[in-house]
Amino acid sequence: MTFKSYHTGVFIRIFLLIIVIGILMFAVLKTYYLLATASLVILILITYEFFRFLSRRFDIIKDFFESIKYRDFSRHYLEKNKSPDIQSLYQGFNTVNKVIREINSEKETQYLYLQKILELIDIGILAYNTKNGEVLWANEAFQNSLDFPSFKNISFVKSRNKEVNQLLFENFYSEANALEIPIKKETIKVLISNALFNVGEKSFKLIVLHNIEDTLNKTESEAWKKLLSVMTHEIMNSIAPISSLAGTLKFQAEMHQQNPKENSLDIEDLNAGLSSIEKRSEGLLKFAKTYRSLSKVTKIDKEQIQLSELFKNLQNLLKPGKEKNILLDFELKDSNLKVEADAYLLEQVLINLILNATEACENTPNPRVKVLAQKKFDGQVVISVTDNGPGIPEEIKDRIFVPFFTTKKEGSGIGLSLSKQIMTLHGGKIQVISKQNKGTLISLIFKENTVSTQR
């Protein structure tokens, strides 16, 4: 409607000009001087009014463009008592100014928000002009990492520490690089990376600096704590049955000394117990050495292990567990069944699994743990440990093999993870099947080429 009224106004004025010009020409040709004079005056007035009509609108548009040039979007154009076309222009200008003010407000909010985030993070960030060295922006973390006060130009760094200036501003790191930067009389370890970007015709360099000294110290400290916890847990798992078995043998020997007639000493039981203690002690030493460099182990000491002997040794070693009224049952489908494995490491795995199983079913009526070895139809030998405990909750099944993950207050979270690694070294695998309130079955599966049967 506004454009139509504007065009209509222009059309009417042009039409009037044509009519007046026609009358003026007619009056001149007919020598009607009075009519010609009147027509000329009217023509001048219409032309002047037409000029004002157009120039006023162009002045309004020019004024709006001038405010845009100087980024003045605060002005508000009054729309009342104006012609419809000017009213429409003012409405459009006000809408444009409002939208731009909103955009600027959003940008300013985002900038402040981003600035706050960058100030809060402990990673140093600095951007500067590559031509004149003027600092565009830098957060406190950057200054604190280098122990520098706030500076406006990187020339300050050069005057204060030339080596730091070369490392930070003269070298380019397209990928994160670990550096040692000298600060006063010390050096700090940092990760540094940078990138170039252009804003208009200006070129800037962005430097990201992460002080990893504290992180490395904290990580190292945590690693030591976990390592000590793990080693303590594994050693205690072996020492507990050794200590218990030694105590039982000592008690039997003392009773025999006090009253030999009523307390006969079974030499075979004594010899079997001492052999179990000796083997487990050797296994513990072997375990400690192997665990220390487990990640680098590429070869283990495999041998043909008679599973009946292994089960007999475990039964003697873990016999004191019966004090908890837990039935520990060993079953071997084939008494001649063998596997090719590292005897000490395999024994360590089974001790871990059996102890975990006994702990799991302690509060279960008629607690029962069964250790079974059998050969499957596909030639694989499976040693399984089954308990009738509460089972493993569904929400943690996927995490039980994650190192250091545990639900026990005093657990290390390494038992199953370490067992899995040991089975991997043997070319086998470990499998877990658990049902809520029904128990857990953990199977050690040995491939066919690692087993044999003696007939």
From TrEMBL:
What Pfam families is this protein classified in? HATPase_c (PF02518)
Task: List keywords of the entry alphabetically.
Answer: ATP-binding, Kinase, Membrane, Nucleotide-binding, Transferase, Transmembrane, Transmembrane helix, Two-component regulatory system
Q: Where is the Histidine kinase domain?
A: 230-450
Q: Is ATP-binding tagged as a keyword? A: yes
Q: Does the keyword Chloroplast apply?
A: no
Reaction it catalyzes: ATP + protein L-histidine = ADP + protein N-phospho-L-histidine
Family matches, as Gene3D superfamilies: Histidine kinase-like ATPase, C-terminal domain
Output one GO BP term: phosphorelay signal transduction system
Q: Which SUPFAM superfamilies match?
A: ATPase domain of HSP90 chaperone/DNA topoisomerase II/histidine kinase
Q: Where are the transmembrane segments?
A: 7-26, 32-51
Q: What is its EC number?
A: 2.7.13.3
User: Which molecular function terms from Gene Ontology are attached?
Assistant: ATP binding; protein histidine kinase activity
Q: What is this protein called?
A: histidine kinase
